[in-house]
Amino acid sequence: MTSLSVGEWPREVTMRVLSAAVAAVLALAAPGDPAKEYEKLVLDSKSTKLGYKEAYLAFKEKFEAFALANKGTEEAVSAKLWLLRNTWWHREEKTMESRAAALAEEILAEAPKSPQIARIPDFHYDFAPADRVRIFTKILETSPHAAARGSALLRLALGVKGEDRKGMLERLRKEFADVPYRFGTFGELADAHLAPHDPAALEVGKSAPDIVGRDADGKPMKLSDYRGKVVVVDFFGDW
Amino acid sequence: MYPHERSLVKRLEKEPFVLVGMNSDESPEVFKAAAEREQLTWPSFFDGGGTDGPIATRWGVRGWPTIYVIDAAGIIRFKNVRGEEMDKAVDGLLKEMKEGK
Question: What's the rounded mean pLDDT across residues A114-141?
Answer without folding.
Answer: 97
